[in-house]
Amino acid sequence: MSKVSCTIILSVVALCSLSIAAPDDIYRDKENVLEANGFGNEEVKKSNLITKCYDEETKSAYKVDSVWYPVGKCEKRTCSRQNNSKTPIIKTIECEPCTSCKLPNQICHPLRSDKNYPKCCSQCLTKSAILMKTESRKKYQNV
Predict the structure, then answer these.
(1) Is 35 exposed, middle or buried (0-12, 13-18, 19+ CB in 10 A)?
(2) What SS3 class is residue 19?
(3) pTM exceeding the 0.85 threshold for the entire prediction
(4) Could you read off the pLDDT of 12-56 as tens digits, one per residue?
(5) How far is 48 from 82, CA to CA, in rounded Å?
(6) Where are the alpha helices (DSSP H) in the chain?
């Protein structure tokens, strides 16, 4: 048997093993809505999972193309369907960490939990900008 034949046979065997393993991986994916059946929520039925995403964290179903902001988290979630898939998935967008600011006169201003993404994200700001924000908030609180 030639090297090319062995390579082709090994490639086919590898692809077959991947296609057999793939369905199990889909059910273990936390962002996949099929895992939601165990919660007993009446709104979650297999027929609904074709047109909706089920967010395990919020225990709610969302229509495809809908957007929501989980309470207490600085992130945006979207229910979307990829081109060749029947099952919609949840895509989560989070803030980039503000660990080190590039300019020497900037500091990392902490995230604001009272705002939705992206306004809740930490930002690199100059000290004067932070002071201006703090002063304007005080003015509104005193009114």
Answers:
(1) middle
(2) helix
(3) no
(4) 333 334 333 333 333 333 343 333 333 344 445 566 667 899 999
(5) 17
(6) 3-28, 127-142
